[in-house]
Amino acid sequence: MHDLQMVDLKRQYHKIKPEIDAAIQRVIDSTAFIKGEDVGAFATELAAYLGVKHVIPCGNGTDALQIILMALGLQPGDEVITPSFTYMATVEVVALLHLKPVFVEVDADTFTMNIDSVMDAITSKTKAIIPVHLYGQSVDMEPLLELAAEHNIYVIEDNAQAIGGNYSFADGRTVKTGTMGIAGSTSFFPSKTLGCYGDGGAMFTNDDALAEKLRMIANHGQRVRYTHELVGCNSRLDSIQAAVLRVKLKYLDDYCLARRTAADFYDAAFSEYPRIVTPYRAPYSHHVFYEYTILLRNVDRDAVMKELAARKIPSQLYYPLPCHKQPVMSLLNLPGYHLPITDMLQDCMLSLPMHTELTNEELAYICDNLIEVINSLA
What pTM was computed for the model? Predict the structure, then answer.
């Protein structure tokens, strides 16, 4: 059995090594390292996969969110609603632009943005909502989009963890996550379901005017070279990363299926153990399991992690300190927040290895040992 990893990128690479190596060599031979043909081709291919009009590649997922907020013309002091139970980047870009983050609660079962909490948080200063499709599961977008439309609020999807996932509307329509709001963003960080071999990100939109603005801001505010119409930044996906992503995009559905299959194995193994709460799969969401995160009931989570590590089984906490409790928040003069579900999750959640190369042997080893550890701590 291979040494267990939270994400095993080496084995994934070796499966597609000839294609990856040829793609990288093609870029090197061309010497078109910036804005090469692969960048435009990848944007076109990803747009076709997602069913969205425009994909604008950029430097990373954090840049993607920031550029979208810049392009929408939000002003300092405008409020942006976001869950606290997310990676700090979601909130960081709001603060960087001198906007005001407003934290809302998540659902205890899906770990994603609670729509009732969003409703209670809306004020006359609310200009945008950032739903985070966490761990590979979609936020319940239909009621959120209706609520946002009622109040004339932008919806910007943070799709860094759920690319390849679907959302189903009540009328039977199914669309890709990241394509339902005014814009969506993703990260191509190597561990992501669609990851490159460095940094990378992208923005999605069906709005032609917004797409043009996103392209300009990501390119120093230029539409024409050396003519800067907007205050922009320098954020681009390089050609080698685009070439890698073109190869891996062909396998994205296979990667999502492999993760769901591993999740099925975990679910079945833990089904008879009430102290292990397996991830809920919302009926509207095609969960792609970027992470497999369980909740532990009436057991010492830290002791479990320590014993698993002794057995060479990695585990991880995503996220042990929610955004509203981060030290930097004291600099923003935000009100105190009472988010009991978020607090509960930080105390009892645990993520297990989840990637495309997990074998049944490895999964059985993880499951058997976790159950044994929990029983020993009873």
Answer: 0.97
